[in-house]
Amino acid sequence: MDEKKQILMQTMALLMSTTPDTVLGRFLNFCLATKVDPAIAHKTPFELAQELIEHPETLKKWIAEAVDSDGDYSVDEMIALSELNIHDSQQFMEKLVLELEAIHMNELTH
Q1: Average pLDDT of 80-103?
Q2: Are 99 and 23 in contact (CB under 8 A)?
Q3: Other Cβ atoms within 10 Å of 64 Cβ, number
Q4: Which residues have C-beta within 8 Å of that of residue 43, sequence separation ≥ 6?
């Protein structure tokens, strides 16, 4: 199967395994509202995502960079950002990872 189709199927399955009222769901909604323009961000969307996963302690800086990455502050982006409701970055990222780990990834691919 085509690699992009495989990635799409996995992404769809992940999205359908959470809801918008969870930390993971709200975070994914923010990601959907944020458009990364590599010419402005000077990195690809994958590189930006990789930075957060490798350095979750940079969440607030990462969010600012993601918002600035397209040069266009949309209403949807600002609403999604406000719905993240982050009071403690470390706690937010811990909850996000716990929710992600609770999803049985092997069930997403079979």
Answers
A1: 94
A2: yes
A3: 12
A4: 36, 51
Can you list the pairs that 13-20 forms with residues at least 24 positions away whose Cβ atoms lie under 8 Å? 13/108, 13/109, 14/103, 14/108, 17/103, 17/108, 18/99, 18/103
What SS3 class is residue 79?
A: helix
Tens of pLDDT, residues 12-67? 999 999 999 999 999 999 999 999 999 999 999 999 999 999 999 999 999 999 99
Torsion of CA 50, 32, 62, 78, to 10 degrees: 180
Say which amino acid occupies 99: E
From the list 18, 20, 33, 25, the residue with the least C-alpha distance to 70 is 33
**103: its two tokens:** 């999803």
Q: What is the rounded distance in angstroms from the CA atom of residue 89 to the CA atom of residue 52?
A: 12
Longest dimension (CA), the chain: 42
